[in-house]
Amino acid sequence: MSGYQFNKKQFKQEVAGNVKKLYRRTIEEASPKQVFQAVAYAVKDVIIDEWIATHREYEKQDAKTLYYLSMEFLMGRALGNNIINIRAVKEIREVLDELGFDLNVIEDQESDYALGNGGLGRLAACFLDSLASMGYPAYGCGIRYKYGLFKQKIENGYQVEIPDNWLKDGNPFEVRREEYAALIKFGGNVRVECDSSGRNHFIQENYQSVRAVPYDLPVVGYGNNVVNTLMVWDAEPVDTFNLDAFDKGEYNNAVEQENLAKTIVEVLYPNDNHYAGKELRLKQQYFFISASIQRAVGKYKAKHSDLHKLPDKVVFQLNDTHPTVAIPELMRILIDEEGFSWDDAWAVVTKCCAYTNHTVMAEALEKWPIELFSRLLPRIYQIVEEINRRFVEEVRRIYPGGEDKVRSMSIIYDGQVKMANLAVVGSFSVNGVAALHTEILKKRVLKDFYGMMPWKFNNKTNGITQRRFLLHGNELLADWVTGKIGDEWITDLPYIKKLALFAGDEKCQQEFRNIKYQNKLRLVRYIKENNGIDVDPRSLFDVQVKRLHEYKRQLLNILHVMYLYNMLKDDPDMDMVPRTFIFGAKAAAGYRIAKLTIKLINSVADVINNDPSIKGKIKVVFIEDYRVSNAELIYAAADLSEQISTASREGSGTSNMKLMLNGALTIGTMDGANVEIVEEVGRENAFIFGMSADEVIACETNNDYNPMDIFNNDQDIRRVLMQLINGSYAPENPELFRDIYNSLLNTRSTDKADTYFNLKDFRAYDEAQWQVDKAYRDEAWWAEAAILNVANSGKFSSDRTVRQYIDEIWHLDKVEVSL
Ligand code: GPQ
């Protein structure tokens, strides 16, 4: 497969040489951190030739290229993944052994690249891995945030956010590309000039500008010599304190420009599924979009003279609405800089741009106040106004008198610029991220658009890369699978179906259980080291790891733990399978109720973990700083995967897929991609409960749910809820969890209560949990079901997802790279 031969001896020399060059030390004297840097540079040397060869090949073939535009790329660590993908794990492990170092320890020295919040950013990272591994030309385009997603510390049970200074030791893999710097303009005003032929020219004046400088990061394909590029933009001031500005008395402007450059890429906004509407965020969006589009157009023009044919060679995928200014920015470049007519420009733009929607939650939809938008991006705003004017005209033409349609589909309405509407209007493709989610978009959220332009709508069910989440994250299971069925699954996950043959075999079940046990021991050690909690590896590992959000219902999980604990207090001999409830979640820094839920989980953990009377039957662990690197350990060790969002709210979910791939069974609602997981593995190998999406939506429409009825009629639930406000878990401050109590029941009649139907689904959830308990006792059944989960995970590879994007949206040219 791979063209090159890994040269161990040379690699070893290079590592030692790097330590010497970088740190003036011998390898014996080097610290693990220094060895990490030295190894990373040596790996980069291997990669760099493939990287050059790949791009030479793309040029030669003049291949159609994807630009995946995303505010977030949650890459995790690079070294281990790169070593896997150049297929040199064994050799490099041996080299390090010989040098007296453990590869795992060296990998642990690297910071995660946490340039994302959660699923949306991780999806982008998985797509890049699949694109490179399948040999397709693609750039990830994003921002080189100085600070990524905050690191989470738990202090006294509360989340504390610590800045993520991930670049402090430098990044050995990145390459600064000064030569591709671009100028980005903000603010000022637009002057219109009419030339002798009567054509208007739009000139932005009195603006502030920043220089965008791209850094390239290699994205290594698996064993195919392909190395793609994640291009992340840094901001720099434009000729600092230039004398002109001083001369004109524009000292303030010069200082402001310098500040703008400093602040714009400073930090990733920590919100997930929530739009905060901050001016700086819009600046970030336009900054990286203008830079990326300029680069794409520039690259095209270097080879081609006719920009009308741009869609033959370039496609932009908008990862949610965050990059939607790409649409008017490309219009601006074509019209203002390239002399296109409006119609010609629009024809090009609407053939180049495609939009992915990731959520139906109203609070995540971006809407910018006109005042802000037009002040920051005056020319872009003019273009959006014109797009809107023409679009509304068309709506009125198709639907005479359809003012309701105008209202729902207008891009500018009610003093706001609605980015989702702009994205739909300016794209040739609109996709959701799971079948159910796409149906909800068509039937509800984007219903009028679907009615008007049904051809744009399509589904692309998410996927994950098996190379990181099985091959890298779970070596034992990966080796076992390969031993049974060969290694095709690494590049063709549906092959893993062959494992089903072994699911019923007793010996195989034993081997599988043993691997799970080893992985649980690894996680137990991690938890002991990082949380100081002792966990019984023989207990059932019940895992909910994902962003903390009310709709994901970590609250339902912990309320249920409180309920179980009450049962155990009443009857310490109650017959139940010992369980460890494992949570991992970051809450947006400003999301009060989410942060309070973390405190609740930790308070419940404190009480339960320190109560000897329940004989260790339940333990609760909150894993600090859940991130890509420790996620790999957690997935490998999980028995049960909690996917319990309020039906209709989770776009897709992807931890559901990663956990399935690692042999965890799902307890979940019929939401997002859970629906498709159950379709693949069979309902009998999962624990499905609760309201359906239709029921949830009907209940909301009819407004006929009153959680107080449940509170009044179900004494077990009432007891749990009372414990939120009677000091059971906060003796020093009984009011501590009052806001959670109120969110469920609410008392002040204006607010909604239990928006996410925790109480309504509680009994069904409890029942499903007892089915889990019962099923887990049957070791053979559980092992078989777990193996069947692995065996039926084939659909959920991001290779499949990317293949569908390529065939149905991107139409990229495949490239072979030989060295
Ligand atoms: N998602 Cl809108 C995010 O992670 N952040 C966001 O801001 C939005 C969506 C998630 C979504 O909640 C999950 O259901 C998806 O699996 C994931 O995007 C990838 O599509």
Automatic annotation (TrEMBL):
Q: Could you confirm whether the keyword Transferase appears in this record?
A: yes
Keywords tagged on the record: Allosteric enzyme, Carbohydrate metabolism, Cytoplasm, Glycosyltransferase, Pyridoxal phosphate, Transferase
Q: Which reaction does it catalyse?
A: [(1->4)-alpha-D-glucosyl](n) + phosphate = [(1->4)-alpha-D-glucosyl](n-1) + alpha-D-glucose 1-phosphate
Q: Which NCBIfam families match?
A: P_ylase (TIGR02093)
Which residues carry the post-translational modification N6-(pyridoxal phosphate)lysine, per the record?
K658
GO CC terms for this protein? cytoplasm
Q: Where is the protein found, in the record's own terms?
A: Cytoplasm
The record's annotation in Gene3D superfamilies points to: Glycogen Phosphorylase B (3.40.50.2000)
* Function summary: Allosteric enzyme that catalyzes the rate-limiting step in glycogen catabolism, the phosphorolytic cleavage of glycogen to produce glucose-1-phosphate, and plays a central role in maintaining cellular and organismal glucose homeostasis.
Could you tell me which InterPro entries the record lists for this protein? Answer: Glycg_phsphrylas (IPR011833), Glyco_trans_35 (IPR000811)
UniProt main location, coarse: cytoplasm
Query: Where do the TM regions start and end?
Result: none
Could you state a single Gene Ontology molecular function term?
A: pyridoxal phosphate binding
Q: Name one GO biological process term.
A: glycogen catabolic process
Protein name, entry field:
Alpha-1,4 glucan phosphorylase
Keyword ATP-binding tagged: no
E.C. code: 2.4.1.1
Task: Tell me its cofactors.
Answer: pyridoxal 5'-phosphate
Query: A single Pfam family, by name?
Result: Phosphorylase
Tell me the protein family, please. Answer: Belongs to the glycogen phosphorylase family.
